[in-house]
Design a protein that fits this description.
The structure holds two protein chains of two kinds. Chain A is of the alpha/beta class. Chain A has helices at about 60-70, 90-95, 115-120, 130-135, 140-155, 175-185, 205-220, 230-235, 255-260, 260-270; strands spanning about 20-30, 35-45, 50-55, 75-80, 85, 100, 190-195, 225, 240-245, 250-255. Helix content of chain A is about 35%, strand content about 25%. The chains are: A alpha/beta, B mainly alpha.
């Protein structure tokens, strides 16, 4: 794929074979002052899989995602993405290397329309300079139209054609979550991080969202790491599950293995002392 | 009934993302331009053009500048007056150094100086936001005012401390100085404002404008989508200050004719901020509406209120008392708008348009 090809591929070409590790997290420790959010956690995400991260509230799941896309800088440990070991990295660098995410509490651009929000996801793909944009003519207009076509593909995929021009602030919660997924997809990520994509949804919306996640994974081969509390969804969607509790990894493996893991059961149900 | 989009289908994305997708809107814009460029200078007298329309256009341009920063990027600034001053002094120094160059070139070039200064004072925005940023931009205001007084080189060592606009020509017509006609100055201001409004609307609807709005709405998510806060914020400061600088140059060269440091004090910063708030944050149309209300309304009240009061009541008031009345009205309007309609007159206008589109069947 050359750099000027603007058609939608779903993800960048990362040159990593399916089944090999796309992301390596090694011995990460993160603390805020005296609070240890994550303690010595290692795991990997294989290319093309759906990796779930679960755990009780406050276990450090969202902190883990924040470490992966550069919001937090861990005190110890290293992250290797696409074979490159990263030092301290800024969120926009993570974005340009192919990591995209959605947020637990919807973080859409509320003053903008659905269309503009998803166009915002294309920011990194657009490069025409200020002086072309000033005239909105020639290459700048061309670029705008090409990316609009891609965005329309995503809108069609997510079945949100009717709200294309609505300001996202006025949309119901379920649709906002869907628009946010669209925005993350528009960046054509290699690794898509979903922070509780089903939170607060009704059954039908959950089914829709699950369908979109599976389709993204299978159609485009996008690798997905998701945090979710709905165990039914996690066990159905995920290829492998990692369990965190109080910032420590207590379980990792296939959904069935994790379900049978005594530590995990104790963490969720509590254990009598 | 006449304002309806039924039957106007868009077959391309280009047509769908046009600035005025509805045919009637296009018609209105051309009508406004025709009125502005032909009817107003033809029928307007010296007072109407010189004291109402030219300052209205100057403040509109400054409001667009501030709106780019405050309305579209979410960085509140109180340095507008000073950035206008930078433009004015830069234009003055340049035209003294090179008297033969077309003054219009210098008016645009002065925006570049203002943009550089604005970017410098925009640096704190990378670390702080909200009220704290307001304070640092206020520091820019006071520092630059100090510079305009204490650096005599800026006003060419005049005894009065003021800059006086020399007579300059463009395309063989006298455009600045005492003998320039109001019509010519008005047409130049209008042309600059129209062109720069068009540029602003293009930038805002493109990638750069979108990245500004992303920073405004949710800076964390913006960073994650690949927007670099450094570039987005500083480019907003630069473009905003460029507009303010050009507005400042126009203010002195096309309107005031002479200016000293009081012309760029913080009152102007507040005035422009009120225009933006009243007109509508994040709307270019709002800049025109806000400037119109805050500049033209007091002039009308000053001229019309005293005779009306004389005629219908036993009291008499003079024009300075009428100014107080307009202060009260504008103050109340700002408070009411902040509470009832934070998006200002432009939002009201959008609501009216929406109602017109579906009239007479509201569903």
């Amino acid at each position: 794929m050359n750099a000027h090809d603007t058609s939608f591929h779903g993800r960048m070409d990362d040159g990593i074979e399916p089944g090999k590790a796309l992301l390596h997290v090694d011995n990460i420790s993160l603390s805020f002052g005296g609070v240890k959010a994550i303690t010595d956690v290692s795991f990997d995400v294989l290319k093309g899989e759906v990796r779930a991260i679960i755990g009780p509230n406050g276990a450090g799941k969202t902190s883990m995602l924040n470490v992966i896309n550069g919001f937090y800088h861990p005190q110890e440990g290293s992250i290797t993405f696409r074979g490159e070991k990263r030092a301290k990295m800024k969120p926009y660098q993570a974005a340009s290397s192919g990591i995209s995410r959605t947020f637990q509490n919807v973080a859409l651009f509320h003053g903008m329309s659905t269309l503009d929000n998803i166009m915002a996801g294309r920011t990194l793909k657009m490069n025409k300079n200020f002086f072309w944009q000033m005239w909105r003519y020639g290459p700048a207009l061309q670029e705008e139209i090409e990316h609009r076509k891609v965005v329309e593909e995503i809108i069609e995929f997510l079945e949100i054609e009717t709200i294309r021009k609505e300001p996202v602030g006025t949309l119901p919660y379920g649709l906002q979550k869907r628009v946010e997924l669209g925005r993350a997809l528009a960046a054509e990520p290699d690794l898509l991080l979903l922070d509780e994509p089903m939170a607060g949804m009704n059954l039908e919306e959950k089914e829709d969202m699950s369908r979109f996640i599976i389709e993204v994974n299978q159609q485009y081969g996008t690798t997905i790491a998701l945090i979710e509390h709905d165990m039914g969804v996690v066990m159905d969607l995920a290829d492998r599950v990692m369990v965190l509790d109080y910032g420590k990894k207590i379980g990792d493996g296939l959904p069935e293995e994790v379900q049978a893991n005594q530590d995990v059961i104790d963490a969720y149900l509590g254990v009598s002392h | 009934m006449f304002y309806r989009e039924a039957g106007q289908y868009k077959a391309t994305y280009e047509a769908d993302s046009a600035k005025f997708p509805i045919f009637q809107d296009k018609l209105f814009i051309w009508a406004y331009l025709a009125i502005g460029f032909i009817a107003v200078p033809f029928f307007g007298n010296e007072f109407f053009l010189g004291a109402i329309m030219i300052p209205f256009l100057v403040f509109t341009l400054a409001a667009i500048g501030l709106n780019i920063l405050t309305g579209f990027t979410g960085q509140i600034s109180l340095g507008t007056g000073a950035f206008m001053g930078v433009g004015a002094y830069a234009c003055y120094k340049m035209t003294l150094a090179y008297p033969d160059v077309n003054i219009l070139i210098f008016i645009f070039a002065s925006g570049i100086f203002s943009a550089i200064v604005g970017m410098f004072f925009g640096l704190p925005s990378l670390r702080i936001k909200g009220f704290y940023l307001v304070v640092t931009t206020l520091a820019a205001q006071f520092f630059l005012e100090w510079a305009f007084i204490r650096i005599p080189w800026l006003y060419n060592y005049n005894d009065s401390g003021a800059i006086e606009v020399p007579q300059r020509e463009a395309f063989g017509i006298i455009v600045t100085g005492a003998s320039a006609s109001a019509e010519v100055r008005y047409i130049i201001c209008l042309a600059v404002v129209v062109i720069m409004t068009w540029f602003a609307s293009n930038i805002i609807s493109g990638r750069i404008g979108r990245s500004w709005m992303m920073i405004r709405d949710m800076d964390i998510a913006a960073e994650l989508m690949g927007v670099r806060p450094l570039y987005a914020k500083l480019s907003a400061f630069a473009v905003s200050s460029f507009y303010c600088g050009v507005a400042g140059a126009l203010m002195v060269f096309m309107w005031l004719g002479a200016a000293e440091v009081e012309s760029f004090d913080y009152n102007h910063s507040f005035e422009v901020l009120f225009m933006v708030i009243l007109g509508g944050l994040g709307s270019l149309l709002g800049c025109f509406l806000g400037a119109a209300v805050i500049w033209i309304l007091p002039v009308m009240i000053r001229d019309w209120l005293p005779p009306i009061v004389d005629a219908i009541t036993p009291f008499t008031i003079n024009s300075s008392q009428a100014d107080l009345v307009s202060d009260i009205i504008i103050g109340v309007m700002i408070v009411v708008f902040l509470i009832m309609e934070p998006l200002g007159l432009a939002r009201l206008w959008a609501i009216i348009k929406q109602k017109l589109r579906v009239w007479p069947f509201p569903y």
